[in-house]
């Protein structure tokens, strides 16, 4: 799998009036509110070309995708605030792939340090302040991966089509699974959460020594500890299952190692215990 040279994070902050100096305000707020080592990382990037802040009247930007923001759970009050906004600040950060994902951590922290409605442009979704702050890494580097990767699913074929939204932040293809039965929507979402954690660990570990490409195994194991870790919780190793990954275009399709009509249910039951509902 090719390794991108750099990754970029983009956040937008919409406000009813312009910020006099967003860079100075972000520095002051991050120095005051953010704990190290994240504080040192963000302040260092703010003083480098890796971060750009671009504030303009909102009419000079493309229209905000309000329908998509609503579909991804934006509160009516937040959408109303967007409709009243007169200015928009674009926060962009670039960084090499690997650990830590400094481009995402820094851009999100900076966006949260200035007043206004914060939009994660990648998703896209509005990030309420409490959720934004909760998503940032703790002093020991722990994050809830579920705050960074979404699992939208839509009716399709004989069930639901899952496609992750967030692995591309880290340079990986998104995961997808087709025909997930209605009864397995919740447990399969947990499987995918665990798989994103395991896959991201494999990817970031390989990037330490990789040059241009990384080989991702065709079969990857997922354990209950991975499911817990995606939620920011430590759990000792326990039950594990294996899934097969197949590259289809720009996505990785998640499949049972062995084919069969009830294989997804069997996998969920093996990981979480029967009955898997």
The total strand number stands at 11
Classify the secondary structure makeup into a structural class.
alpha+beta
Radius of gyration: 20 Å
How far apart, in Å, are the first and last alpha carbons?
35 Å
Spatial shape = globular
Can you summarize the main beta sheet?
Answer: 6 strands, mixed
Tell me the count of domains: 2
Strand adjacency order, main sheet:
6-7-8-11-10-9
What's the tally of helices?
A: 9
Mean pLDDT comes to 94
Helix content: 25-40%
SSE order, one letter for each helix or strand: EHHEHHEHEEHEEEHEHEEH
Task: Please state roughly what percent of the residues sit in beta strands, choosing from under 5%, 5-15%, 15-25%, 25-35%, 35-45% or over 45%.
Answer: 15-25%
**Low-confidence stretches at least 5 residues in length (pLDDT < 50)?**
none
What is this structure, in a nutshell?
With 277 residues, the chain is of the alpha+beta class. It is built from 9 helices and 11 strands. Strands 6-7-8-11-10-9 form a 6-stranded mixed sheet.
Give a topology summary.
Elements: E1 7-15, H1 22-33, H2 38-46, E2 51-57, H3 66-71, H4 76-84, E3 87-95, H5 102-111, E4 117-120, E5 125-126, H6 129-135, E6 153-156, E7 159-163, E8 174-180, H7 185-206, E9 219-223, H8 224-230, E10 240-248, E11 251-256, H9 263-272
Parallel strand pairs: 8-11
Antiparallel strand pairs: 1-3, 1-4, 2-3, 4-5, 6-7, 7-8, 9-10, 10-11
């Amino acid at each position: 799998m090719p390794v991108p040279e750099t990754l970029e994070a983009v956040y937008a902050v919409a406000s009813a009036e312009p910020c006099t100096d967003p860079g100075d305000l972000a520095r002051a707020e991050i120095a005051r509110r953010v704990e190290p080592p994240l504080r040192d990382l963000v302040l260092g990037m703010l003083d480098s070309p890796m971060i750009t802040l671009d504030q303009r009247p909102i009419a000079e930007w493309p229209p905000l995708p309000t329908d998509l923001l609503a579909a991804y759970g934006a509160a009516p009050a937040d959408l109303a605030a967007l409709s009243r906004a007169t200015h928009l600040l674009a926060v962009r950060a670039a960084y090499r792939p690997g650990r830590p994902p400094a481009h995402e951590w820094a851009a999100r922290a900076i966006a949260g340090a200035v007043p206004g409605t914060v939009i994660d442009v990648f998703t896209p979704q509005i990030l309420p302040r409490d959720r934004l702050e909760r998503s940032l890494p703790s002093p020991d580097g722990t994050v809830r991966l579920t705050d960074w990767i979404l699992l939208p699913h839509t009716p399709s074929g004989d069930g639901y089509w899952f496609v992750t939204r967030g692995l591309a932040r880290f340079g990986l293809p998104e995961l997808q699974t087709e025909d997930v039965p209605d009864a397995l929507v919740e447990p399969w979402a947990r499987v995918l959460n665990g798989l994103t954690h395991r896959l991201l660990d494999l990817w970031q570990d390989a990037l330490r020594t990789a040059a241009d490409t990384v080989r991702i195994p065709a079969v990857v194991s997922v354990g209950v500890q991975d499911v817990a870790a995606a939620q920011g919780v430590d759990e000792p190793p326990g039950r594990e299952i294996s899934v097969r990954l197949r590259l289809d275009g720009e996505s990785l399709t998640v499949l049972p190692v062995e084919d069969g009509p009830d294989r997804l249910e069997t996998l969920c039951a093996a990981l979480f215990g029967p009955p898997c509902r």
